[in-house]
Amino acid sequence: MSDLPAELDAALAEFASRRPLLVASDYDGVLARLRDEPSAAVPEEGVAETLARLAGVPGVTVAIVSGRGVEDLQATSGLSGPFRWVGSHGEEFDGPLAGDLAHRRDELAAVLAPAVADVPGARLEIKPASVAVHVRMVQDRAVAASVLERAGTLVDSSLTLKPGKNVLEVAVTDADKGTALRRLITELDDAAAMYLGDDVTDEDAFRALRPDDLTVKIGDGPTDARHRVADPAGALAVLRRLGDLLA
After folding, report:
1. What pLDDT score was predicted for residue 98?
2. Domains of the chain
3. What are the percentages of helix, strand and coil residues in the chain, rounded to 5?
């Protein structure tokens, strides 16, 4: 018996009957709770076992999709298994970037540095193909909003802005999670796909999937996902229920 909404439970049952399957999920805010310090965002208890169970089913591929770089994602999560790793909002597949974008990224960091200078709690995060401006730890919410607004005005309009929860990420590539999922679906012989995400950047993934694919929004806020659960505990319940159905 499932505690999930009846409509979502029925959609999971239908999804579980198909093959091949792609089960993909964002990391922060879905498999791990959001933390003030990103390096502290470890998976929720039970996530590792649940993902391993899913990945062990014939015809099922598990992908972890993140704005983090793949190396950071693997190190922070501590997860290991036959997973597909997608980092840098889709630019990295299974490992670090093949090309060298470090120079462009470092120039971007220098441009954005004034936005966080002298603002307690504001900081830059340097990623393989982007720079993120974080304001989660800025106490004054009006100041936090002004930091993100200023950051957006400092960068070249040709760069890709990826706003999120208390963060503005500026990428030196135009990759997004939606194009990454479509690439995986094609590689996996037109697999039926499921995606769980919580943030603004996950909307690209929700929109990229097909009407008969399964999309689940974690948390509140407007979304193009067709289903919703409240928090990472709900996301884990979805994945566990899928494991039961596949068994």
Report:
1. 63
2. 18-96+176-246 (3.40.50.1000), 102-171 (3.30.70.1020)
3. 40, 20, 40
